[in-house]
Amino acid sequence: MTGRWAPSxxxxxxxxxxxxxxxxxxxxxxxxNTLIWRxxxxxxxxxxxxxxxQIRDCERIGLDWDGEPxxxxxxxxxxxxAIEQLTRRGLTYRCWCTRREIREATTxxxxxxxxxxxxxxxxxxxxxxxxxxxxxxxxxxxRLRTDxxxxxxxxxxxxxxxxxxxxxxLCRGDGIPSYNxxxxxxxxxxxxxxxxRGDDLLPSTPRQVYLFGLLGLTAPNYAHVPLVVTASxxxxxxxxxxxxxxxxxxLGESELDVLNMLLSSLYMNPVTSFAQLRDRAKNFDPxxxxxxxxxxxx
Length: 298
Ligand code: GLU
Hints:
Elements: E1 2-5, H1 15-30, E2 34-39, H2 48-60, E3 70-71, H3 76-88, E4 92-95, H4 99-107, H5 127-135, E5 141-144, E6 150-155, E7 159-164, E8 169-171, H6 179-189, E9 194-198, H7 205-214, E10 221-225, E11 228-230, H8 245-250, H9 255-265, H10 274-282, E12 294-296
Parallel strand pairs: 1-2, 1-9, 2-3, 9-10, 11-12
Antiparallel strand pairs: 4-5, 5-8, 6-7
Helix pairs in contact: 1-10, 3-6, 6-7
Bound molecules: glutamic acid (GLU).
């Protein structure tokens, strides 16, 4: 069995990121699963210093993983091969829609699509419409041609979750494979069987499960965990004060204090050493985790 932790190196981790990393680690280490670190670094917002700081901060709170971290940017060919395969099967089409056009189409009266879903404007263009769009000079994204199927996933923490699979993007207009495509290709190729991640990604999961099926691959098991929010209910971000490990150390806390704060937010008892964390992992019980967000108030 294999788990993974798949951060995007687009910023320093805050306590919410570290907490999700700790959870991915606890799930893996409680069942002797291998844990892979995969950097999702296809995005242009990636910066070299964040690869180092994300790894360093996880190490400092006692986490480890197996093998060298993997980078999506080294695996580009695998994603383009999958996209080509789907294109050969007639399952893709080009889309020139702007974000605004997509938003307006899904918020139109009578739209039955979930927010942000694609309504299929570019799916069946006439020759004339196609020629117009081709002449626009904009680079099209590539979308998956789906049947609008409803997929139910069984989440280990949150139970059943149902979602309509829209014609989601496989490759962006700038030629970068999409998040959903990269995740599916990688999780399959790396033999990932257990995905533990923030519940903000739950709505994308039916799309991913659908794509696993199309590519003849087996989807992993999922455990989505609640995020960290502020007292006013906002998702935790850097602007909310002392929220990185560095910030907490500057306040005079130790790495162990920070780990214990995270453990306490998971209703787990504190540890007196990082070695004790390993023992604690053996008795980790996911059924006793909180199912609501952790409210962080400084
Ligand atoms: N790279 C994504 C993020 O940092 C997580 C992807 C995943 O776990 O599937 O939010």
